[in-house]
Amino acid sequence: MERHESNSELPVERQHEDCLSRSTQERCPVNFSVAVVLPAAGSGERTGLSTPKQFCKILGRPLISYTIHAFERVCWIDSIVVVVAKESHDMMADILHKYNHTKVKLVEGGPTRHRSILNGLLAFSETGVGPKLQKPKVVIIHDAVRPFLEEDFLLKITLAAKERGASGAARPLVSTVVAATAGGYLDYCLERAKYRASETPQGFIYDIIYQAYQQCSEAEFKFGTECLDLALQHCGTSAQLIEGPPTLWKVTHKQDLASAEATIKESLSQSACIISGECTETHDLSTCMKSWLTAAGMRVDAIPNTERSMTLSASRNVIKLSVNSSDFAEIREIMKRCEESKDFLLYPVIILWVFLNVSDQVTLRQENDEASTIMNLAEEAKKINIFLYGVQLSYSKVSTQWERTVNRLCQLTMALIRDRNDAFTGQMLQA
């Protein structure tokens, strides 16, 4: 089977589709087998939470699912071994099923990080227990709580591991490292420019890292954490260090979960499609919104109803413009198309239903019916990970007044898309 390199500049939710759609004539530079081991058996004590951090939810989805998806969307990754504590096995199995993670094998973890990684490596070895996965040429070891992995950097790590035997991500030190005396006084400082912080992903020729673990001492298993050092000490393999991007940071403390959520929300708010009706007013509003949102940094496709199937799968944010709110069937059709997307479960989809009132004849009863309908639709939508919001505004032929209305609508649109707050779903907002 031929492999293809995806465009890492696309938003994360589109990279998988882009990779699958590449021409079969375009070969990926990875022409050998690659597997991943994700140690995730830790308790996450430093977060101060009762739930291990890898299972904490961001936008309703466990953190580890984001990390798994970062590897699953890469065409040339053959398999992923997730190592979890025995008591977390059933919960992890439920996550794999719910989010349709199909490349993953679960393995029981050990009492330390190195023990857990060895258990993951044994999933490919004949000396292990149970059915075996095909032994890879290169194995990637990565922290389960580093979800923001860029494919182009993963490729650098993989190719360097194949060439050198081992490779690893490194980052410049942020702070100077000091040594303290037994009494708590400064002893000496390290030259910060000479040192680096070791990060993951780390790549290895499988046979090298497996052999290194076979020679580990009990002290290394108990206290050690650095895989690159094992390859150096036991196999004489000096890893190539590659400076990683700032996105490689690790969720360690409770506040990091909020930072991770903000990062994911930002990536999901990069694009939107506007579906407009055929009347002059909705076309005018579509043009104004596209201009405003584009100036705010969002990539926007404005399309008529008849062409919506071409672009719905390319965005997690859909803005539907309706005149006097009669497009209930149209919203259901959009919901259906979003649900048919391969990864609709992975990230919440936003549908912003804009009711453009072009008549003074709309009654209070009609407005109440609209509010009731959108509330009911929103309850259905939330069950399939779609957040449905409603916004009402009145069309004005007075240019200055219309401009103010559109500005308010666009500001509200940006806020709803960026915040992705399910508390406002089903609400009828005013612009």
What can be said about this structure in brief?
With 431 residues, this protein is of the alpha/beta class. The chain has 13 helices and 17 strands.
Walkthrough of the structure:
The chain is of the alpha/beta class. The chain is elongated. A seven-stranded mixed β-sheet has the order 5-4-1-6-10-7-11, with helices on both faces. Strands 13-12-14-15-16-17 form a six-stranded parallel β-sheet, sandwiched between helices. About 40% of the residues lie in helices and about 20% in strands. The model is unreliable at about 1-25 (pLDDT under 50). β8 and β9 (about 185-190) form a beta hairpin. It has helices spanning about 10-20, 65-70, 90-100, 115-120, 150-165, 205-215, 220-225, 225-235, 255-270, 280-295, 330-340, 365-385, 400-420; strands at about 35-40, 55-60, 60, 80-85, 105-110, 140, 165-170, 180, 185-190, 195-205, 240-245, 270-275, 300-305, 315-325, 350-355, 385-395, 430.
